[in-house]
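Consider the following assembly input.
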Amino acid sequence: MIQAISILLENKPGALMRVTGLLSARGYNIESLTVARTLDPTLSRMTIAVDVEPHLRRQVIKQMNKLINVLQAVDLTDGPAVAREMVLLRVRAAMESRTAILKEAEIFGARVVDSSLEGFAIEATGDAEKMNEFIDVMSSYGEIEVTRSGLVAVSLEAKKLRLSPPIPAGVEAGRTQPKDRNGVLNA
Amino acid sequence: MSNLMSGSRMLLECLSREGVDLMFGYPGGVTLPFYDCLFDHPIKHILVRHEENAAFAAEGYARATGKVGVCCATSGPGATNLVTGLVDAMMDSIPIVAITGQVTSKLIGSDAFQEADTFGITRSCTKHNFLVKSVNDLPQIVHEAFYIAATGRPGPVLIDIPKDVFQGQGHYTPVHSIHLPGYKLVTEGHSGQIRRAAQMMWEAQRPLIYAGGGIIAAGASDELREIAETLDAPTVCTLMGLGALSSSHPNFISMPGMHGSYAANMSLTHSDLLIALGVRFDDRVTGRLAAFAPHAKVIHVDIDPAEIGKNRAPDLPIVGDAKKVLPKLLKSLQELQPTMQETNSPSRRAWWKQVRDWKEQHPLAPVFSADEIKPQHLMSEIDRLSGGEAIVTSDVGQHQMWAAQFIRFHHPRLWINSGGLGSMGFGMPSAIGAQFARPDKLVFSIVGDGGFQMAVPELGTIATHSLPIKIIVMNNGYLGMVRQWQTLFYNNRLCSVELECFPDAELLARAYGFKGRTIDKPSELTSALQEAIREPGPYLLNVKVSPYENVYPMVPAGGAINEMVLDNPQPVAVPAK
């Protein structure tokens, strides 16, 4: 089944690679992935749709949370959430079908973003199923070219973000004391 | 307070602050500035003969002490040679920090000489990795790397440093705090869960403690022993957990799994409560997962939340550091002891009797022969001479399994082997790290004739530093474990497993300037081992053992662990010549 995961991650080099690499290393298939900066420019928000067996869903989240650059990974499939997708498509339309295409676009709440003699460029948003229908309908009018954004989702309930506080550095700060950690040294 | 210094100098400052006194490495073009600084620095650098062995030696150091091991390699081939060691440390949760050189920042991405995408290549081989972009970031990154490597579930961390960062000048200010907001550590353990666990432990009729490498990593052996004694439960230790409970402790059963003992595997199968401490339900322990411990409820204590429910869904999970959870668990057990100790005592006594019966029915007993040295004989003799006090390192394969079966370990951090990854060539370099870490200890490096030949260059390192490592080659002339599988599961069609040429051990050792010897008679075994131990320097003992011995008990791949093959199928398979 498709699982939607929302990830808040530090905007650091290689952070995206860590997430995608982990998914492929653990054998999960990525259906779609979107990522962009948040209000805080040091952080990015990522929405991933993965195809995963239901019993592995929690494991995926746990593995994500192990990544040091990931501040929070949430399974949106668990709770109330809104998920949308955007479609940008170009349809070649003969003069006689142009009105019909515009009507159809209106039904789907889509907007024409470019119009030329060859046809239209149209943008639409909605859930994935509605977008599939929209694409089907448009393709019946002629040759189309489609770009989909992939899933973008937001949880409808606030989830508390737990962050680790700063800790002192260096051995002298009395942090990872090998001698405390292990009973045999200097035994 | 700050002062101007080069990146190389900063790195050494940070390493010193982390308590590093020793590192293993191999220099190269882009790490020249660093080695120039190292020239008159108190940190000792051990030149190994191959970068892979630098990582293995750092692991040996870390496994023997619990401290973070450090290794260093140059860009390109140096870094790619580290990869096996990094994955090995990842699989066995060993804290090491690897420092690699990288080509000058401006050249990155240009296919420069000795350039490799180390950051990309090692992403999946490390707990975390860093590419240093500016000399000013270096101190922060080094301290973060050590913190990540040593805390939580330990693991390898790599720092890739371009040549211009080594050379660049920056104002060094000692780092006083690390902030990794996304590094989520859960160490304490849920107190309610811990109390419920104690309750379940007293209520069980056939409890079994299943302890692993997590106990050793946490340094919680004493706590484990006290829990085993308070509950008086039989205890099995995994391959990674050998020594967590002394092998001579009356509650210790032995190792479970594919080549585990009959008693350990039967106990797992019949237990009604598994107290799983710092283990990950590895496939080599569980066999066919669906048939593993079918009657047992499971209490699973682990520091890594992702291990909970990964392979076996626990009835009671506790996420936390064993060093913090076990004392609380012990306290809860003691609080309940007066009221609950007698709850199931008749069935507990019957359970102990059953476990002891299994032990007696099929003990792990060495095999002897008058005319050839049996590998089991070799291991039991090493066991007798080491008395559970020596450090023993091994590769992977038959010798590793026999060593794990027959050699006792009275303390943690004595048994050093490549468990999860199963890397050949691990035994000798890890012995180097262990011997440097514990100069007072007798170190046996037990290797097969295959693994020995993968690590042969390190004889040079051993000789250079006169490390008194006793290299024991269990020489059966075959890649023994692969040969065993070909014999048992591939109609004895032995393909590419015979190692026909093996160097004369005496000549080889003499070529490096130390003593060596080859033996093949059982009567020579004890005196040869004693001679090796008496020798103040290194010793290479090549022991020719019977070539067709198989490791038993054995759970065939995909089998349930109570479906053990206990002995050779009859008639005994002999290879077609």
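Residues 92 and 119 of chain A are 4 Å apart (CA to CA). Ask yourself how this observation constrains the way the partners meet.
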